[in-house]
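User: Design a sequence. Structure:
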């Protein structure tokens, strides 16, 4: 038994490795954003038993791997019920040295992953020449990591655009138990004079 990452246990030998996250069931393996199924694994999916590493991952050259990310419950709930035992995300290198291009179906190939993009949110309380131009943004605020307090409340602040009369609020999230929830409402139309 090997434990290199907190909460992640790897058991087995060179013929078969079993992985468990937080003593849960089999983790979901995701290669470059695509969930990988595991066809030959006794105990795969059984709670507390862990799951065998998929062959496509186990036979991958270490030099082809850019990085691994491990999502433990409840963060793994974003993958739905498949992520109940945790999620292991494997990202391969792209464009340097050897390339790794697993064929998942005859009509689909993996081009790699995209780097996270930073959402531009102007800070008008800071003097900047860019703020003199009209602000026509359609999306005023976006944040993928809002965490509520113990009462379920969160406070967000943002600067409005120069043309917005109505603001539509769309909130999507997961509870600690992985239960999804949504909220959609429009504000401001009845309180603002038409221009």
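Assistant: Done.
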């Amino acid at each position: 038994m090997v434990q290199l990452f907190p909460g992640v246990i790897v058991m087995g030998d060179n013929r078969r490795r079993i992985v468990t996250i937080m003593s849960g069931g089999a983790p979901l393996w995701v290669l470059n954003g695509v969930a990988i199924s595991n066809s030959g694994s006794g105990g795969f999916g059984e709670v507390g038993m862990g799951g065998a590493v998929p062959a496509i991952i186990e036979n991958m050259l270490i030099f082809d791997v850019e990085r691994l990310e491990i999502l433990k419950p409840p963060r793994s709930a974003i993958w739905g019920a498949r992520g109940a035992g945790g999620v292991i995300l494997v990202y391969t290198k792209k464009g340097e040295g050897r390339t790794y291009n697993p064929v998942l179906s005859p009509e689909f190939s993996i081009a790699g992953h995209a780097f996270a993009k930073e959402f531009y949110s102007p800070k008008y309380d800071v003097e900047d020449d860019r703020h003199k131009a009209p602000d026509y943004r359609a999306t005023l605020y976006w944040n993928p990591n809002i965490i509520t307090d113990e009462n379920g409340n969160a406070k967000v602040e943002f600067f409005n655009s120069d043309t917005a009369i109505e603001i539509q609020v769309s909130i999507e999230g997961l509870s600690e138990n992985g239960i999804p929830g949504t909220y959609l409402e429009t504000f401001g139309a009845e309180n603002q004079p038409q221009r």
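Helices lie at 55-58. The two ends are 69 Å apart (CA to CA).
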